[in-house]
Amino acid sequence: MIWFVAFLSCIGLICAETPFNLNVHNDRVIGGHDAEPHAWKWQASLQQDSYGDGYFYHICGGTLIDAFHIMTAAHCILSMDANSYRVVLGEHNLYEYEGSEQIHRVARISVHPGWNGDLGKGNDIAVLRLADSAYDNGYVALANLPSPGEMLPHDYTCYITGWGLTDYIGSAVDILQVAPIRIVEHSVCSRPEWWGSIALRTMVCAGGDGVISGCQGDSGGPLNCFTDGSWRVHGVVSYGPSGMCNQVTKPTVFTRVSSFNSWLSSVMY
């Protein structure tokens, strides 16, 4: 019970938290490698100026779903003050300006009304409206989304991308990482020795092999899957186990995008 409370209070590895100083070096996201520059053009970096000093820290990932809107996780929203956030698109190296970046302020935050701060209850999804339009500069593109209710088969290979931690002691990367990660169907992920009852049908589980996983800082980012002839974002990074990120039978859990198509449409105006 103590572990469960710790997990749901965001001590779990991929919850957003107040930014802290990170040691940047060339380790890889767990089981992954440096992404090809600008291959994942819908990937966003959500950043926050939590101290009011004009310095923005990467706190979570996100996905560009239309010219004005970013999809991310509800638990990434640490404050409802839109002015404290910005979104960077066209990013590859977080710590170098490469000329491909677009920096956008946030005008409005919409958190799913079913989100109550309990990761095990689901609805961990939010949408940010940008203050100005994203545009195609050759490095930025809109994500495709799955059809309503679409579910992926067991062992299907998708890809997780992000700038998350590479281990549980706080090591981070500057370059966007990518890792192949296999879907774990709900009937498996909801077994007691896996995630049990907190793995809902409105979630997607992937990984759990003890090798590949998301980690803190990947939250809110996309689960990228090639389906129906194109890349589609099927999930939003939501939660994982406390302690080490890549634990056997504890896969990374994503909010299932296909369960929220109607809500996404309702807040994109």
Task: Give a structural overview.
The termini are far apart. Strand 3 (43-48) and strand 4 form a beta hairpin. This protein has 269 residues and is mainly beta. The strands form three sheets. The protein has a six-stranded antiparallel beta barrel with strand order 9-11-12-15-14-13. The protein has a six-stranded antiparallel barrel with strand order 3-4-5-8-7-6. It has two domains: 41-142 and 262-267, Trypsin-like serine proteases (Thrombin, subunit H); 157-258, Trypsin-like serine proteases (Thrombin, subunit H, Beta Barrel). The chain has helices at 2-11, 186-189, 261-267, and strands spanning 23-24, 33-34, 43-48, 57-66, 69-72, 85-89, 102-111, 126-130, 157-162, 171-172, 177-184, 203-206, 222-227, 230-239, 252-256. The longest helix is centred in the N-terminal third of the chain and has 10 residues, at 2-11. The radius of gyration is 17 Å and the shape is globular.
